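User: Can you model how manganese (II) ion sits in this protein?
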Amino acid sequence: MNMKLSFRWYGEDDPISLEYISQIPGMRSIVSAVYDVKPGEVWSEESIKKIKDACEARGLVFDVVESIPVHEDIKLGCGDVDRLIDVYCENVRRCAKYGVKCVTYNFMPVFDWTRTQLDKRAADGSTSLVMYFDQLKGLDPLRDDIHLPGWDSSYTQSEVRELIRAYGELGSEGLWRNLERFLERVVPVAEECGVRMAIHPDDPPYPIFGIPRIITSEESLDRMLAIVDSPANSICLCTGSLGCTRSNDVTAMVKKYAARDRIAFMHIRNVKVMDDGSFEERAHLSSCGSLDMYEIVRSLAECGFSGYVRPDHGRMIWGESGKPGYGLFDRALGAAYINGLFEACEKNLKGD
Ligand SMILES: [Mn+2]
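Assistant: Here's the modeled complex, given as structure tokens:
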């Protein structure tokens, strides 16, 4: 198969071992990061090498980083931005030195992702992450003490309020300017050291509590890719993030960006979008959600896609507990399903 199957691993503290991950058929690459260093600080070479060595000892390759987080001051365009971007570039160089080929990041203000519940129980007893607008109604972070899943718990409530105010003032055009400044500096460095930068779309792809979200749609991905027109400035196309709003035609987006070789990394997962726009994370299978996984994979196979693919969030099944979305069992089922779709699509194209 052309695509490179990968799996996210949270390092030595991850309850899911590299040994277990290596037992998933077809597994090739590990997606990881140095998770114990704050944004804006340089990663030690020893810590990057440690991940590489641990992966190689299990026959796996550490060649995808998710993520090198972008410091809030870079997004806000305040403080010591130039120095922070220098640190970012240094981290890209260091990752490349130890074999990393793809670096994922996002440009979401304040919160990486937002859900209203992490353990919504389905009829079959499995649990998954959901976003129900009913559960958001009436909440105002400028007034209430809110802690939603996915929100950085290291911020105090007053810091959160301050950030929300600052981003409100900056607005989406201000955020775009800061993304431009970031990409114009980072992409040439990535290019030089053979790394593809892959932006993860905003999750969900619409503003929450008035905080701007800019990587949300085909139009915004076009604008992002045009900032630096290079394969080193690419997309981490997360089907579940883009797919939780009906206005995004995920299959069409995959076709378009794969044909232009601007997808470095695919996150494959399914979501069920409800009548009011709320959504539930579901099993990977097409029939379990709103996305047609066969059409998505076929579009990739038709372009000879050879980038990285990973199963994204899974449900909790078979009594497993742990980091919501990142258990072993359902993600392994997702990987097996992804393997099957690619094998069938690729063989079909060859006329076998
Ligand atoms: Mn994703």
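A couple of observations from the model: The mean pLDDT is 93. The CA atoms of residues 40 and 71 lie 6 Å apart.
User: Helpful, thanks.
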